């Protein structure tokens, strides 16, 4: 399985270039901003392409070395895609709410995961001796824990790298990762603070098409890392690839990233996308 590739045209079509309204921006993002159109910041995709490639290779290398990747995206527009991408590539995710200490207090989180597994066994087995009210309360507690910890219940330890969709909303997760020295790959919208992000990816963090693209690319990088790990261990890839489905969403453009798209072309395409639905909710 090959590393996923991404082109400037793909990013434009997904609306990755749309930032927030100019009144909602972080001055630290100035180096990544291409310009302003209709009072909306336009992100510089000519920087996003190589930075995305760098981030994908970082994730691929971590997985190839046997590491764990944690996908983090708790906003409603990202939750479903984060969970789906992480599940497809056999990694882990947090898509409901980031609990304080989820990384820095891993011992306590491990205890909660153990409790969740115990409740699964109890509710899936013999519930004789429990009243209907006790079963209902147990079920509710189990559902609450599963929403918060279901995506990391099999992680078995701290992740080696985390991928974050919205750095403003997931500020606590990034702070905990930084404290533990865990590298962070993150999508940076025009209102983000790039501090503490090892692998920044300037881009729209609200548009569904853009979020779907990020998640699919990361899943593709994980799959390539798994293939590299299997090759290093001497496993027959012909047999193993039957267990790993090819992801159809990673369609590479005919041209290489940035080829044939000069500044004037980018300007034209940006202007043509001004009324794109990805601007919804940005102003």
TrEMBL record:
What InterPro entries is this protein classified in?
Ribosomal_uS2, Ribosomal_uS2_bac/mit/plastid, Ribosomal_uS2_CS, Ribosomal_uS2_flav_dom_sf
Q: Which PROSITE patterns match?
A: RIBOSOMAL_S2_1 (PS00962), RIBOSOMAL_S2_2 (PS00963)
Which of UniProt's keywords are assigned here?
A: Ribonucleoprotein, Ribosomal protein
Q: Can you tell which superkingdom this protein's organism belongs to?
A: Bacteria
**Pfam families listed in its UniProt record:** Ribosomal_S2 (PF00318)
Instruction: Kindly list the GO CC terms recorded for this protein.
Output: ribosome
Return the PANTHER family for the record: 30S RIBOSOMAL PROTEIN S2 PROKARYOTIC AND ORGANELLAR, SMALL RIBOSOMAL SUBUNIT PROTEIN US2M
Instruction: State the similarity comment.
Output: Belongs to the universal ribosomal protein uS2 family.
What is the name of this protein? Answer: Small ribosomal subunit protein uS2
């Amino acid at each position: 399985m090959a590393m996923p590739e991404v082109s400037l045209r793909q990013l434009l079509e997904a609306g990755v270039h749309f930032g927030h309204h100019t009144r909602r921006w972080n001055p630290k993002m100035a180096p990544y901003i291409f310009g302003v159109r209709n009072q909306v910041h336009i992100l510089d995709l000519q920087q996003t392409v190589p930075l995305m490639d760098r981030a994908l290779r970082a994730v691929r290398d971590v997985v190839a070395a046997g590491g764990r990747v944690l996908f983090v995206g708790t906003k409603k527009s990202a939750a479903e895609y984060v969970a789906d991408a992480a599940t497809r590539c056999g990694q882990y995710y947090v898509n409901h709410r980031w609990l304080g200490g989820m990384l820095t207090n891993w011992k306590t989180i491990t205890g909660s995961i153990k409790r969740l597994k115990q409740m699964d066994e109890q509710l899936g087995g013999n519930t004789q001796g429990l009243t209907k009210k006790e079963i209902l309360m147990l079920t509710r507690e189990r559902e609450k824990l599963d929403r918060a910890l279901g995506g990391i219940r099999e992680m078995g330890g701290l992740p080696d790298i985390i991928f974050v969709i919205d750095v403003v909303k997931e500020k606590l997760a990034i702070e905990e990762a930084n404290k533990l020295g865990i590298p962070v790959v993150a999508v940076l919208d025009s209102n983000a603070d790039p501090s503490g992000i090892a692998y920044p990816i300037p881009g729209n963090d609200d548009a569904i098409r853009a979020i779907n693209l990020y998640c699919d690319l990361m899943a593709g990088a994980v799959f390539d890392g798994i293939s590299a790990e299997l090759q290093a261990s001497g496993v027959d890839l012909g047999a193993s690839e039957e267990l790993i489905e090819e992801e159809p969403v990673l369609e590479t453009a005919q041209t290489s990233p940035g080829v044939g798209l000069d500044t004037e072309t980018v300007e034209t395409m940006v202007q043509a996308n001004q009324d794109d639905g990805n601007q919804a909710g940005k102003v």
